[in-house]
Amino acid sequence: MSIVTGIDVGTSGTKIVAINEKGEVVASTTKPYDLITPKPGWAQQNPEDWKKAVFEGIKEITSRIPKGSVKSIGLTGQMHGSVFLDENGNVLYPAILWCDQRTAKQCEEITEKVGEKRLIEMVSNPALTGFTAPKILWLREEEPEVYKRVRHVLLPKDYIRYELTGDFACDVADASGTLLFDVKNRKWHDELLSILEIPIEWLPETYEGPEITGKVKPDIAEELGLPQDTYVVAGGGDQAAGGVGCGVVKPGIVSASLGTSGVVFAFSETVHTDPEGRVHTFCHSVPGAWHVMGVMLSAGGSLQWFRNKLCAEEVELSKKTGVDPYTYITSSAEKVAPGSAGLIFLPYLSGERTPHKDPYARGAFIGLSLMHSKAEMARAILEGVAFGMKDSVEIMKGMGIPINQIRISGGGARSPLWRQIMADVCNIPIVTINIDEGPAYGAGLLASISAGMFKSLSEACESVIKEIDYTNPISQNVEEYKFWYEEFKLAYKALAPAYKRIGEKLGV
Asked: What beta strand segments (E) does 342-386 contain?
């Protein structure tokens, strides 16, 4: 038996899956760890905690599968985080994560020094606090003594690669999220590195997703119960690996994740860049391909807020019956007609990335009246999130990216009503698939090529990923939602100045 493992170094924990030649998950485990927030807006973790979780997880996996069966390992994980190492490979500072907001000043410095338009031309993305480059500048400005000792800068999953293999390597998809990578030409951007005075020697060598970057060190292999010749492949950032795990490896297929946040992810054979920087353009884990991604900060999180703050009755009923409270919430929403009786919800509870890039934006119900109940509010939330996802879809269409179907995943995908609303709002068929293991599964598929299971990612995805359910748009609803979507967009434009004034007043 041949097994590949996919390792996802996430924000709340590490997930590891073992996959056989048929694409079946034969073992999996998740090892949690803490998010450290020492100051408001800061988010960091200790890389040693990732290592501990990964090593414990691999030991557990290898104890549950035939000895010597692991042929290759694929790595994925949270993007953008910075791991600073000294000349001996020792961690110098806690890893600054993707969700850390401390680098707003450095983002402004980068934009002023390079120019926003020129920056997007160079690296296909604007300067955002999540990206890696401003984190490096922050360390230089705020922790100069630590900065003097830096010799390597790695992304989270690539620190695990270093601990497994001793190699400093990265994949092109994850590198795309550093703001230091020439996305168009799939290499580090020499000119930008020179402008920002960041030594290229600090950065790892880059590879395409399925390429082998090394082998697990003999002593580590023995410790973890792995064969001595276990390969490690480049892998991909969590979004690119998640795209592979959903089969988004050819034109026309788009994925949409309805988790706490929302992501619309599209495959592209050529580079498509939004000059306004509303969506991200990164290299894909598929060799020679790219992906475009829109990010919504409060997708499922909006419905979670509604449940936690306004649905105590449904939560209590759930405790008595064992029925998920979301079932009660969406059942009431299903009785409301499209348009929610004139109620519009803006799902900006945490600010917004796509399309507004507005940290001041906040949630709002527009048109609330005495006639409205929780049922209308619930449906308005489902519709508002769908409108927010449609923003990304429309930008991608405008960039010339074909979209024939949307493969949906995440907790929100379990709701038939939400799937129908998504189909109607976007006027695109919504498809569910047989795989729900996330980026770890995609990382495993990336490893399957080196293990000889499949000849290409396309073959791998076609062999193991199956479409199991279709939700087609209802023409009457499509027409109805055209009006409400336009009002949704106008509502944000009307409120944006107030959002900024209020945010500045509150010191956001």
From this structure: 344-346, 364-366
Residues with catalytic annotation? 238
- Non-local (6+) Cβ contacts of 484 within 8 A are 338, 339, 344, 383, 387
φ, ψ for residue 30, nearest 5 deg:
-130, 130
Amino acid at 386: A
User: HSE of 229 in the Cβ direction (CA atoms, 13 Å)?
Assistant: 3
d(CA 431, CA 416): 11
CA distance 485 to 483: 6
Rounded to two decimals, the pTM is 0.91
The 3-class SS string of 287-347 reads CCCEEEEEEECCCHHHHHHHHHHHCHHHHHHHHHHCCCHHHHHHHHHHCCCCCHHHCEEEC
Q: From 52, 51, 125, select the one nearest 85 (Cα to Cα).
A: 51
Burial zone of 308 (CB within 10 Å; 0-12 exposed, 13-18 middle, 19+ buried): exposed
pLDDT band at 456 (very low <50, low <70, confident <90, very high): very high
Domains contained in the chain, CATH given:
3-246+438-468 (3.30.420.40), 300-433+474-506 (3.30.420.40)
Contact 386, 426 (CB under 8 A): yes
Sorted by sequence, the CB contacts under 8 Å of residue 301 that are 6+ apart come out as: 260, 261, 349, 350
DSSP state of 67: T
* pLDDT, greater one: 19 or 438: 19
| Cβ contacts of 227 within 8 Å, gap of 6 or more | 68, 70, 71, 221
- Tens of pLDDT, residues 230-259: 999 999 999 999 999 999 999 999 999 998
> For the segment 22-81, what is each residue's pLDDT rounded down to a tens digit?
999 999 999 999 999 998 889 999 999 999 999 999 999 999 999 999 999 999 999 999
The three-point CA angle 28-31-37 to 5° equals 145
What number of other Cβ atoms are within 10 A of residue 412's Cβ?
27
- Dist. CA 3–CA 6, nearest whole Å: 10
pLDDT tens sequence across 255-300: 999 988 899 999 999 999 999 999 999 999 999 999 999 999 899 9
Please, are residues 302 and 316 in contact by the beta-carbon 8 Å criterion?
no
Nearest Cα to 171, choosing from 221, 237, 82?
A: 237
Distance CA 76, CA 8 (A): 5
Alpha-carbon span 273 to 353, nearest angstrom: 16
pLDDT > 90: percent of the chain: 93
Q: Which DSSP helix (H) or strand (E) runs through 26?
A: strand 25-32
Give burial (CB, 10 Å; 0-12/13-18/19+) of 471: buried
Burial state string for 200-235 with b = 16 or more CB within 10 A and e = fewer than 16 = eebbbebbbbbbebbbbbeebbeebbbbeebbbbbb
